[in-house]
Amino acid sequence: MAEIKTKPTQVTPASFLDSVESPARREDGKVVCALLQTITGEEPRMWGPSIIGFGSYHYKYDSGHEGTMCRLGFSPRKAQLVLYVLTGADGEAERLARLGKHKIGKSCLYINKLADVDMAVLEEIARHALDDMNARYPSA
C-alpha cells in the first residue's frame, strides 16, 4: 500500500501563511486559520506541504486502507481557498445555499475570497462539520 503523504510536518502554519504569495490570499488564510482554531480549540498544524489542519482522527475503510487526518482544515491555494469542512451532514446543503459565492467538491469547499461569503454562515458550516466529525470519529 502506498505511503500516505498528507501527514503532520514540522513546518509552522504561521511561516507557511507568511509565504503565501498573494497578500489577499495570505490575509484570508490568517482569518480562516483563526476561525478554525476558535471553533476546534486546537492549535493549527501543517499536514503535508499545504494543508493547515486542526485536531486529528483515525479512519479505516472497508478496503483496509487506514490513516490519520485532520478533523478540519484548509489550504490557501493560488486559485482559491480550499476548506476541508464538508461532511454531507444534515442541513449542509441549506447552509451552503446561504453562504454566498462558492464551489464544492466531495469534501471541499472552494472560495475565491472571504469577501464573497457570509462569515457567520462559514462559521456555522465549520461548527457543524466538527460536530459531525466528532460524532463519526470520537476521540480515543
Portion of residues in beta strands equals 15-25%
The helix-and-strand class reads: alpha+beta
CATH-derived topology: Aspartate Aminotransferase, domain 1
Average of the residue pLDDT scores: 93
Question: What's the CATH first level?
Answer: Alpha Beta
Helix content: 25-40%
Number of strands: 8
Strand order of the largest sheet: 1-2-5-6-8-7
Which stretches of 5+ consecutive residues score pLDDT under 50?
Answer: none
Distance between the terminal alpha carbons, to the nearest Å?
Answer: 25 Å
Organism: Sphingomonas tagetis
Protein name: DUF1801 domain-containing protein
InterPro entries: YdhG-like
Pfam family, one: DUF1801
What does this structure look like?
- Residues 29-130 form the YdhG-like domain.
- It holds the Pfam family DUF1801.
- It comes from Sphingomonas tagetis.
- This protein has 4 helices and 8 strands.
- The longest helix has 18 residues, at 23-40.
- The protein has a single domain (13-136), classed as Aspartate Aminotransferase, domain 1 (Alpha-Beta Complex), CATH 3.90.1150.
- The chain has helices at residues 13-18, 23-40, 92-99, 119-136, and strands at 44-47, 51-54, 57-60, 66-69, 72-76, 81-84, 103-104, 109-111.
- With 140 residues, the chain is α+β, with helices and mostly antiparallel strands.
- It starts with 12 loop residues before the first helix and ends with a helix.
Structure characteristics:
8 strands, about 35% helix, Aspartate Aminotransferase, domain 1, globular, YdhG-like, two-stranded antiparallel sheet, about 140 residues, DUF1801 domain-containing protein, alpha+beta
